[in-house]
């Protein structure tokens, strides 16, 4: 598989209009155009174990129909192709085009008679939400906000959407998991160490009309205090996980330090103090186990020997040929013990926990991009 393309270009974060009604109208028109996960999946296909193939290198061949607004929006908002203003005017309103430019989701180029609009950002449909991120290219000029790759849809689809009191999304990035949690949680906190990411997350909250999510700047749990609250009954995280010897953990959205697990270890170690007695944590990522070791052993060490007190659903699968397409100095050794996927943990009410490997040959997504599996200890 080819490496992700690398660019060096300053890209501004999206801008919230002064009049919030502009955002509401823009989101409504996106929905009216049929810009949904199901319609995008119909064009681009579903990659069985990862999610909808928004990244071109991982999807089936596809030719856009210039008269279809969904195809136009995919070309503009995902592929970053220039779309003529005349073509847009045939499919969306003038107010929609104005909002594209005002929010920085599009830039007009060319002479007025033959002008086009092109986007330096991505706009994804995701389980009923619209999420803006950076483009799917490694950009060395900015601290990027991760685009919605398969793991975003994997975690978003596998979290049980039952009522919760308070949720936290650690390393929130674009805010996608915090915003999905807003539908079933009384309140949500999204934390990120990257100020630019919080600009995206707050924009996405405004775009979706969500008001019960607070985004705070900080380093994981260090950002939480008596104001934000420090305990939760739902924790979600898609932390940086690639073993990159050229970067410190958290320097960018992919590096988990030289071993890959530095941030994950901190999250797991904090679960006993930050997760309510009946709370659940859902973690998605790479688990780069050294040959001869297991995920269970690492989690038990991070939990100070108390893993036996937790019920764990393990929806991971082996990835011995995992290819790192982002790191400057990627791991080049034995990957035979590596796994990838979602782990769901909660404290066992009886005090006697278990670890259940549940992935097998599971198909995680239906053809319409919807989740085929929920990671739920109660239904297992």
Protein model, in words:
- With 380 residues, the protein is α/β, with parallel strands linked by helices.
- The chain has 2 domains: 13-124, no CATH class; 136-379, Vaccinia Virus protein VP39 (Rossmann fold).
- The chain contains 10 helices and 17 strands.
- An 8-stranded mixed beta sheet has the order 12-11-10-13-14-16-15-17.
| Structure summary, number of beta strands | 17
**Low-pLDDT stretches:** none
CATH architecture of the largest domain: 3-Layer(aba) Sandwich
| CATH topology assignment of the largest domain | Rossmann fold
- Determine the number of helices (DSSP H or I, runs of at least 4 residues): 10
Shape: globular
Tell me the fraction of residues in β-strands, as a range: 15-25%
Rg computed from alpha carbons, rounded to a whole number of angstroms:
21 Å
- Based on secondary structure, the structural category is alpha/beta
End-to-end Cα distance: 36 Å
What's a concise summary of this model?
With 380 residues, this protein is of the alpha/beta class. The protein has helices at residues 20-32, 37-44, 69-77, 85-89, 94-102, 150-158, 176-181, 195-207, 262-274, 295-302; strands spanning 6-7, 46-47, 51-52, 83-84, 107-109, 116-118, 121-126, 129-134, 138-139, 164-170, 185-192, 213-217, 232-237, 275-288, 310-318, 338-347, 354-357.
Structural topology:
Elements: E1 6-7, H1 20-32, H2 37-44, E2 46-47, E3 51-52, H3 69-77, E4 83-84, H4 85-89, H5 94-102, E5 107-109, E6 116-118, E7 121-126, E8 129-134, E9 138-139, H6 150-158, E10 164-170, H7 176-181, E11 185-192, H8 195-207, E12 213-217, E13 232-237, H9 262-274, E14 275-288, H10 295-302, E15 310-318, E16 338-347, E17 354-357
Parallel strand pairs: 1-9, 10-11, 10-13, 11-12, 13-14, 15-17
Antiparallel strand pairs: 2-3, 4-6, 5-6, 7-8, 14-16, 15-16
């Amino acid at each position: 598989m080819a490496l992700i393309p690398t660019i060096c270009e300053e890209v501004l974060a999206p801008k919230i209009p002064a009049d919030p009604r502009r955002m509401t109208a823009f989101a409504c028109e996106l929905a009216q155009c049929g810009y949904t996960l199901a319609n995008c999946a119909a064009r681009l296909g579903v990659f069985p174990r990862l999610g909808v193939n928004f990244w071109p290198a991982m999807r089936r061949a596809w030719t856009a129909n210039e008269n279809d607004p969904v195809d136009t929006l995919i070309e503009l908002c995902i592929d970053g192709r220039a779309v003529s203003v005349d073509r847009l005017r045939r499919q969306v309103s003038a107010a929609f085009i104005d909002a594209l430019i005002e929010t920085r989701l599009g830039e007009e180029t060319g002479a007025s008679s033959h002008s086009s609009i092109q986007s330096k950002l991505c706009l994804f449909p995701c389980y009923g939400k619209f999420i803006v991120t950076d483009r799917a290219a490694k950009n060395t000029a900015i601290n990027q906000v991760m685009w919605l790759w398969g793991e975003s849809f994997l975690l978003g689809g596998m979290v049980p959407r039952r009522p919760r009191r308070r949720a936290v999304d650690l390393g929130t990035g674009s805010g996608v998991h915090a915003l999905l949690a807003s539908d079933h949680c009384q309140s949500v906190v999204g934390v990120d160490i990257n100020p630019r990411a919080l600009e995206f997350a707050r924009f996405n909250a405004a775009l979706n009309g969500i008001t019960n999510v607070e985004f705070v700047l900080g380093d994981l749990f260090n950002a939480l205090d008596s104001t934000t609250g420090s305990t939760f009954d739902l924790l979600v995280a898609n932390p940086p996980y690639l073993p990159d010897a050229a970067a410190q953990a958290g320097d960018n959205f992919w590096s988990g330090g030289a071993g890959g697990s530095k941030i994950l270890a901190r999250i797991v170690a904090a679960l006993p103090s930050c997760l309510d007695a009946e709370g659940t944590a859902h973690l998605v990522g790479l688990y780069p186990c050294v040959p001869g070791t297991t995920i269970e052993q690492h989690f038990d060490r991070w939990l100070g020997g108390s893993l036996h007190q937790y019920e764990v659903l393990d929806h991971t699968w082996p990835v011995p040929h995992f290819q790192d397409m982002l790191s400057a100095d990627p791991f080049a050794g034995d990957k035979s013990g590596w796994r990838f996927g979602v782990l769901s943990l909660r404290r066992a009410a009886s005090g006697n926990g278990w670890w259940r490997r549940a992935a097998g040959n599971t198909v995680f997504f239906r053809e319409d991009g919807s989740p085929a599996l929920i990671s739920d200890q109660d239904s297992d």
